[in-house]
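Structure first, sequence second, as always.
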C-alpha cells in the first residue's frame, strides 16, 4: 500500500522530507521491500546520502520531528476511527525510522543550533515517552554528532547546559522506565559524561563521576568518594572514569600508565587501604533483586531481575582490580582470591554473579610479583566448578610455571605459605599472655590463651579487648587462622588427587616443602610414604622426628638424593595393609586423608569378560547437580544436561590422566520422568552406565589399564554414586521421589555394600567394641544393629538409612550439618568420611531412643 495524497497533506510542515519518504516508499514497493531492508540499493536513499551537509541535516531534523509527532497523530486518527489513514501513517513512520537510521551512519556536519534543537526535541520526547525505542535508538547517534562538533568547534554553553539537562533527567537513571533499552541508555549517559568531562578537563575543571546506584558497590563507592577532601575526590573521579572505559581481558599500557600516575598522586598506602575496604564490602555484598515494569497496550507488566553488579559498575570494579597488580602484600592477594570466589558464585537461572570481575582477579593474582598470588590461584582452582573458569586459572598457572621453568605442582608448593607455623603450631605474645594457634584437624584450627602462670584461659583477656592495637592484632590473626583452615583443606584435596598422578619428589625438596613446612607438616606427617634410597626401598611414616617402618624401626638409609612418593595400598599385600592399619591405630594417628583404609578396586571376572568396559557402577539414579559438583572436585569434566537437549544420550563425564596418556569416561543418561527438571530446565536426575578408558581415540582393554589408575578411577565413580545416589536421601521414601524408581531406592538403601561401605564396615568392626554403644550394638551383615529402649534398629552401613524391627519399617532421620558433635571424642583413623560419622551419630542417638524429643522422630517410633 502506497501513501495517499491525503496522508501527505498531514505532513505539510515537512513537505520536502515527506516527498522524499513517499518516493522511498514507491521504490521499495516495486521490489516488495515493505520493511526497507535493502536501503543500500534504494536510489532515493543513495541520492540523499550524496547530498551536501545542510541538506542532510535539514532532512534528518525533519525526520526526527515527523517521528516525534507520530504518537499524537495516531491517537487522533484512532479517535476518529480512520483506519486507512492509520495504516498509511504507520508506513510513513516505518519509512522515516529506516531512513533516519541509515542517514545517521553517514557524515553530517550539524551546526550548534541544529544540534541544540535536536537535544531540546529529545528532552520533550523524554517527558512523553521515556524509554521508547526511538529515544534510545536515535539519541546516541546525535550525541556522537555533538562529540564531533565539540572536536571541531568546542562546546558552547548552550549545548553544555542542554547535555546536562538530558544527563540529569530522573528517568534516564531509572531502569524501570527503559525495560529492554537499559544498555542503550547507559551508553548515552556515558557518552554525555565523556563529552562534558573532556570539555571540563580542557578548562582545568574535574567532572564529577558517579557509579550506578542500583547495587551495593555503586552506593558504597559514591558515598566514600563524596566525603573525601577535594583534591583526593578529583583523583578518584578521574580513576573511576578511566576504569569505566576499559575493554578486553587485561589492561593495556595506556590504562596502566594513566592509573599509576593517579594512584601515585593519591598515595599508594592510602589507595591500597581504600581498595581493601571496598573489596571487603563487595565480598560480603548480597545480590540485588530489582523489579522492572513495562506498560504495553494499557497494561503494566512486572518482572524481577537478580544481579550482583550492574553492567557499568562491574566494568569499573574490573578496572580497579587491575590497578592492584602493583601491590603484592598478602592481605590484598587474599582479598582478591575471596572476591574471585564471590564473583564466580552462581545466581540461579542467571549464571556467574560477575564472571568478568572474577577473571580480573585471576589476571591480577597471576601477574603479581612473588608467589603468593599463584598460591591464591592454586586455592581458587579447587574452589570453582565452572569448566571455562577452571581452564582460565589452569592456563594462568601453566603460564607462570613456564616462565619459571618448573611444573605447576612445584609452583604450588613454592607458593604455599607456612604462616610461621612449626609442626602446625605457633605462639604469639600479647604482653605477658601468649596466644597459641594449633592445627587440630583438616579445617579445624584452635586458638588458646596461655596465662603467665602457664594455665589456659578460654576467653580473650580484658586488656586485649580494651587495646585498639592489640584488638587489631588479634583480628588479623583470626583472619589468618581462617586462611590456614582453607589452605589445609585445599592441600589435603591436592594430595589426595596425587595418587593417580604418579608424583615423586627428591628428598631434599620434599623435606623443605612438606616435612619441614609449618602447614604441610600436619598432613605429610600423618601419611605413609615410599622412600627409595640407593641401598633400599621402604614404606615409612614420620614419627618422633625420624622415619619408622611398619614395625616401628627407624629407617636411616636416606639422603637428599633419595626419592619419595605416596604409598598406595593397591601395590601392597593384604598383610602389609592390615599391618599398617594396626600400627596407625596403636599410634592413634588420624590420617589427613584416607590412605591405609583406602578402597582398592581390582578387576572382576565380569570386567575381564566385557574387556573394554565396566558395568560395576551402572544402573544407579543420581542427583545431577550433586554429581556435577562432586565431579568438578575430583577434576572430572561434566556438562549439565537440560531438557532442551532433546535427549543427549550417553552423556559422559571424563577425567584426563596425562601422566599415563589416558582418559576415563563414565557414561550417564538423563532421567526423563514426570517433567523432573529445575526452573532453568536442567534435569534433576541422571542414570549411570559403563566406565571405560581411552588412549587417544582408541578404547583400550581394562587389563591394559595400570592397577592404580583403574582403582582410583573406580573409587571416584563409587564416590559419585555413594554421595549423589537418591538412595542416600532419607526423604526420598517419604516425599514421593520418582515413583517408578522406588524399587531402586529400596535396593540401594538396604542392598549390598559398595567398596567404600565395606571399608566403613571394617572400621566399625574394630571401633564398636570400644565405644559406649558396645552393649547394645552388633554388626549384622550390611547393618549396624542397635537395640534401643523402644525398638531395635538396623542402620545400613552404606546409605546410613534405618529400618526398625520387627517388620523392617523405615525410619527417616535427616542428619544435621553438624553431625560431628556426638563423634568428636571417637578416634577415627582418617578424616573425610561423613557417612561413617552419620552412622555412629545415629547409633548414639538410637541407643537412648526413649530420650528423643524430636516429634518428627517420636511419631515414627510409636507408629
Amino acid at each position: 500500500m502506497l501513501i495517499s495524497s491525503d496522508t501527505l497533506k498531514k505532513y505539510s510542515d515537512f513537505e520536502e522530507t515527506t516527498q522524499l519518504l513517499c518516493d522511498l516508499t514507491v521504490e521499495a514497493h516495486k521490489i516488495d521491500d515493505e520493511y526497507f531492508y535493502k536501503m543500500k540499493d534504494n536510489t532515493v536513499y543513495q541520492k540523499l546520502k550524496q547530498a551536501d551537509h545542510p541538506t542532510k541535516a535539514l532532512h534528518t531534523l525533519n525526520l526526527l520531528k515527523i517521528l516525534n509527532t507520530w504518537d499524537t497523530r495516531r491517537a487522533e486518527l484512532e479517535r476518529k476511527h480512520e483506519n486507512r489513514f492509520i495504516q498509511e501513517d504507520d508506513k510513513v513512520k516505518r519509512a522515516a525510522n529506516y531512513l533516519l537510521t541509515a542517514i545517521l551512519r553517514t557524515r553530517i556536519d550539524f551546526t550548534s543550533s541544529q544540534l541544540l534543537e535536536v537535544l531540546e526535541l529529545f528532552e520533550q520526547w523524554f517527558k512523553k515517552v521515556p524509554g521508547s525505542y526511538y529515544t534510545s535508538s536515535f539519541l546516541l547517534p546525535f550525541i556522537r554528532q555533538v562529540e564531533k562538533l565539540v572536536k571541531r568547534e568546542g562546546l558552547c554553553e548552550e549545548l553544555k547546559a542542554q547535555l546536562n539537562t538530558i544527563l540529569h533527567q530522573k528517568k534516564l537513571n531509572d531502569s524501570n522506565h527503559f525495560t529492554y533499552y537499559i544498555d542503550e541508555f547507559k551508553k548515552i549517559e556515558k557518552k554525555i559524561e565523556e563529552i562534558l568531562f573532556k570539555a571540563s578537563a580542557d578548562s582545568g575543571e574535574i567532572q564529577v563521576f558517579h557509579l550506578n546506584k542500583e547495587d551495593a558497590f555503586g552506593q558504597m563507592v559514591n558515598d566514600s568518594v563524596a566525603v573525601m577532601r577535594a583534591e583526593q575526590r578529583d583523583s578518584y573521579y578521574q580513576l573511576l572514569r578511566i576504569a569505566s572505559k576499559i575493554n578486553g581481558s587485561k589492561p593495556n599500557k595506556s590504562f596502566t600508565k594513566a592509573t599509576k600516575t593517579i594512584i601515585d598522586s593519591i598515595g599508594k598506602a592510602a589507595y591500597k587501604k581504600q581498595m581493601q575496604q571496598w573489596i571487603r564490602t563487595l565480598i560480603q555484598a548480597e545480590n540485588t533483586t530489582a523489579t522492572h515494569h513495562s506498560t504495553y497496550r494499557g497494561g503494566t507488566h512486572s518482572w524481577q531481575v537478580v544481579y550482583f553488579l550492574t553492567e557499568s559498575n562491574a566494568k569499573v570494579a574490573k578496572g580497579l582490580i587491575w590497578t592492584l597488580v602493583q601491590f603484592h602484600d598478602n592481605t590484598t592477594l587474599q582479598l582478591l582470591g575471596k572476591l574471585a570466589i564471590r564473583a564466580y558464585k552462581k545466581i540461579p537461572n542467571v549464571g556467574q554473579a560477575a564472571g568478568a570481575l572474577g577473571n580480573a582477579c585471576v589476571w591480577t593474582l597471576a601477574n603479581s610479583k612473588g608467589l603468593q598470588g599463584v598460591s591464591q590461584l592454586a586455592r581458587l582452582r579447587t574452589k570453582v566448578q565452572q569448566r571455562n573458569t577452571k581452564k582460565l586459572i589452569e592456563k594462568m598457572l601453566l603460564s607462570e610455571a613456564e616462565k619459571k621453568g618448573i611444573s605447576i605442582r612445584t609452583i604450588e608448593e613454592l607458593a604455599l605459605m607456612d604462616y610461621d607455623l612449626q609442626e602446625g603450631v605457633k605462639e604469639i605474645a600479647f604482653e605477658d599472655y601468649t596466644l597459641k594457634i594449633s592445627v587440630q584437624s583438616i579445617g579445624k584450627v584452635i586458638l588458646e590463651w596461655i596465662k603467665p602462670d602457664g594455665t589456659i584461659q578460654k576467653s580473650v583477656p580484658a586488656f586485649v579487648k580494651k587495646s585498639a592495637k592489640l584488638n587489631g592484632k588479634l583480628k588479623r590473626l583470626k583472619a589468618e587462622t581462617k586462611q590456614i583452615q582453607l589452605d589445609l583443606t585445599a592441600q589435603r584435596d591436592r594430595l589426595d588427587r596425587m595418587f593417580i598422578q604418579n608424583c615423586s619428589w627428591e628428598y631434599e625438596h620434599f623435606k623443605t616443602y612438606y616435612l619441614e613446612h609449618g602447614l604441610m607438616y600436619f598432613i605429610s606427617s600423618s601419611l605413609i610414604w615410599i622412600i627409595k634410597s640407593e641401598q633400599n626401598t621402604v614404606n615409612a611414616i614420620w614419627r618422633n622426628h625420624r622415619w619408622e617402618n611398619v614395625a616401628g624401626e627407624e629407617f636411616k638409609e636416606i639422603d637428599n638424593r633419595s626419592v619419595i612418593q605416596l604409598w598406595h595400598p593397591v601395590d601392597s599385600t593384604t598383610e602389609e595393609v592390615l599391618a599398617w592399619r594396626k600400627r596407625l591405630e596403636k599410634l592413634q594417628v588420624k590420617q589427613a586423608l584416607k590412605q591405609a583404609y583406602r578402597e582398592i578396586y581390582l578387576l572382576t571376572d565380569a570386567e575381564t569378560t566385557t574387556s573394554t568396559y565396566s558395568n560395576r557402577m551402572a544402573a544407579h539414579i543420581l542427583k545431577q547437580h550433586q554429581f556435577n559438583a562432586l565431579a568438578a572436585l575430583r577434576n572430572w569434566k561434566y556438562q549439565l544436561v537440560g531438557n532442551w537437549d532433546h535427549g543427549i544420550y550417553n552423556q559422559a563425564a571424563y577425567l584426563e590422566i596425562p601422566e599415563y596418556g589416558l582418559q576415563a569416561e563414565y557414561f550417564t543418561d538423563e532421567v526423563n520422568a514426570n517433567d523432573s527438571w529445575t526452573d532453568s530446565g536442567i534435569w534433576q536426575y541422571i542414570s549411570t552406565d559403563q566406565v571405560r578408558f581411552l588412549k587417544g581415540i582408541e578404547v583400550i582393554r581394562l587389563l591394559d589399564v595400570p592397577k592404580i589408575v583403574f582403582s582410583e578411577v573406580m573409587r571416584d565413580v563409587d564416590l559419585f554414586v555413594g554421595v549423589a545416589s537418591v538412595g542416600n536421601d532419607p526423604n526420598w521414601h517419604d516425599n514421593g521421589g520418582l515413583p517408578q524408581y522406588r524399587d531402586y531406592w529400596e535396593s540401594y538403601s538396604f542392598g549390598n555394600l559398595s567398596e567404600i561401605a565395606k571399608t566403613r564396615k571394617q572400621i566399625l568392626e574394630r571401633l564398636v567394641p570400644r565405644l559406649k554403644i558396645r552393649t547394645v550394638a552388633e554388626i549384622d551383615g550390611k547393618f549396624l544393629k542397635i537395640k534401643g529402649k523402644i525398638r531395635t534398629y538396623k542402620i545400613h552401613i552404606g546409605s546410613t538409612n534405618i529400618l526398625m524391627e520387627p517388620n523392617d519399617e523405615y525410619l527417616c532421620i535427616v542428619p544435621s550439618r553438624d553431625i560431628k558433635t556426638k563423634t568428636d571424642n571417637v578416634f577415627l583413623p582418617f578424616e573425610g568420611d561423613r557417612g561413617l560419622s552419620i552412622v555412629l551419630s545415629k547409633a548414639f542417638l538410637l541407643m537412648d531412643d526413649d530420650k528423643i524429643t524430636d516429634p518428627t522422630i517420636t511419631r515414627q517410633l510409636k507408629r
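Margin note: The radius of gyration is 35 Å.
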